[in-house]
Design goal:
single chain, 193 residues, Rossmann fold, two-stranded antiparallel ribbon, 7 strands, binds flavin mononucleotide
Amino acid sequence: MNILHVDSSALGGHSVSRELSHAVMATLTRNHPAALVTYRDLAANPLPHWAPAADASDPAVRTGSEALDEFLAADIVVIGAPMYNFSIPSTLKAWIDRIAVAGRTFRYGASGPEGLAGGKRVVIVSSRGGIYSEGAMQALDFQEAYLRKLFGFLGVTDIEVVRAEGVNFSPESKQRAIASAHATIDAGERIAA
Ligand SMILES: Cc1cc2nc3c(=O)[nH]c(=O)nc-3n(C[C@H](O)[C@H](O)[C@H](O)COP(=O)(O)O)c2cc1C
């Protein structure tokens, strides 16, 4: 079993999504001690933005195809994904631009698009300052909604979300959101499976 762990928060040790994605990983690796784990820190080591390859020796091409190979090889992908301006960090988008590749993870056929990366699980670890799971701000969620649609487009049907939201309302709200997400992880037989 291969597990790919991706973090994208720029907040290092203060990051909520990093704390929670590591908690998900601790649970998964406890239950799958033989799992091979690959870690990508997109804040520490951002991928170059996608651009047409200068030539085959272009280092960006090699880095991009390594990211794609890691994604394809993974049985489970755990992604720490904060909300930045209603969407995801640009570092995470740059990674997506490397893994969403026609002919590898999706293709267009006579009947439209077809995902080629099914058969894996994706765990999205979402953190956000406000509340978007209900209420007036719901329509502005281009973070979880985008990631669900993107991985769905690539053929992934097994998508879970671990969420801490309202973390910027107050220190108490932040603690409550983090505790609730940890409780989901601890109780989540599905996440541990
Ligand atoms: C650049 C930036 C943009 C942000 N944009 C939003 C936003 O649009 N909506 C929101 O609710 N919170 C926003 N936040 C707050 C973060 O989503 C929140 O602090 C979250 O915990 C970040 O995840 P992290 O702690 O893992 O870094 C933003 C934070 C940063 C740094």
